[in-house]
């Protein structure tokens, strides 16, 4: 399982900001950026990547920003996992962390790297670290949920392999 | 119209006629039942043994039926079926003992006890093997605990009944057997079924789990209340044991129903 955060960089367009625990392949990365560009009505959606045998579970949301165009940062939090898993398993956790991110004052500054116009703002590094910590925590929660689900499914599958 | 109705409900009408004849006879003659003196002081043992045997056979029979109906592909069903039938031997003894057959009295001698109780280690090993087949594909993990249970079960019976010197060899045997094999295995069955039921959100396995839990509790009372001065309380535990078989039977039936609905 991988957790990925994409955001809309006002200079270069959609960009992968965070990927944990590993970086994602270029092929998957390009596809994800394409999905970010889609004008989705639903905030929560899933995409199956047949060739890669993967499923992407995505939550699109926005946080207020003083620096972004339109005063909002467009963000997509995605879980990459094997195609057999039920994406609804992750919905609550993704939603919970989207609220968390929205509730932190000036978190948007974390998206702005050095070399950007506001590079002298001392909060950039602080917010970046805060954002990073939230995402790691989110990943750990998702991972724990997944492990619990795997154990649950194990016992059910063992019984269900027989007819009763 | 009346004729058509009579044909459709022939058995109901025939039943009513038979009931009317019996009731008329009873109300006119007020008959006094024929005594069965042999049951005068053992009716409770007869009743408990009879009900237990019927329930154990029903569970065993149902599992056997399901084994056939599911094209003999679920080995746990046939193993558990045989186990329940083997277990019923003990309760058959109670019926015959209550009916006055001296050799059916398992308390007559350690040998008699062994003869009517060997089904219990077989049952313990059988139900354990059935659940291990489900839980693991590893043949060693399936067979080693099963044979250990079977071997230890018989070892306790032989040691307790024939080798360890004691004034109450039967009680010593049952203390050893129940508290080292029987109760832990019943708890294992209870936990596995309840856990599966909880995770699968199904009621059938939860009921089976509940049944095995009550079965386990009832056997906690076996040895301590089997002594002559407190033996009347042993029958309360026996009633509880009898109660435990009902959720096991219903649970297995509900498992089938829930599977067909899914």
Would you spell out the secondary-structure blueprint of this structure?
The complex is a heterodimer of chains A (about 160) and B (about 260).
Chain A: E1 2-9, E2 13-20, H1 26-37, E3 44-49, E4 54-64, E5 72-82, H2 88-103, H3 123-160
Antiparallel strand pairs in A: 1-2, 1-5, 3-4, 4-5
Helix pairs in contact in A: 2-3
Chain B: H1 2-8, H2 10-29, H3 43-69, H4 75-98, H5 110-117, H6 119-135, H7 139-163, H8 169-200, H9 203-220, H10 231-261
Helix pairs in contact in B: 3-4, 3-10, 4-6, 5-7, 6-7, 6-8, 7-8, 8-9, 9-10
Largest interface (CB within 8 Å) is between: A-B, 11 and 20 residues
Backbone shape of chain B: flat
Number of helices of chain A: 3
Q: What percent of the residues of chain A sit in helical stretches (DSSP H or I)?
A: 40-55%
Low-confidence stretches of chain A: none
Helices and strands of chain B, in N-to-C order? HHHHHHHHHH
Largest beta-sheet details of chain B: none
Tally of strands of chain B: 0
Distance between the termini of chain B: 42 Å
Q: Identify the CATH architecture of chain A.
A: 2-Layer Sandwich
Percent strand of chain A equals: 25-35%
What is the CATH C-level name of chain B? Mainly Alpha
Description:
The complex is a heterodimer of chains A (164) and B (262). By secondary structure, chain A is of the alpha+beta class. Chain A has a single domain, classed as Beta-Lactamase (2-Layer Sandwich), CATH 3.30.450. In chain A, 40% of the residues lie in helices and 27% in strands. Chain A has helices spanning 26-37, 88-103, 123-160; strands spanning 2-9, 13-20, 44-49, 54-64, 72-82. In chain A, strands 2-1-5-4-3 form a five-stranded antiparallel β-sheet, with helices on both faces. In chain A, a hairpin with a 7-residue loop joins strand 4 (54-64) and strand 5 (72-82). In chain A, helix 2 packs antiparallel against helix 3. The longest helix of chain A has 38 residues, at 123-160. Chain A starts with a strand and ends with a helix. In chain B, helix 6 runs antiparallel to helix 7 (139-163) and helix 9 (203-220) runs antiparallel to helix 10 (231-261). Chain B has 262 residues and is an all-alpha fold. Chain B starts with a helix and ends with a helix. Chain B has one domain: Rhopdopsin 7-helix transmembrane proteins. The interface between A and B is medium-sized, with 11 and 20 residues.
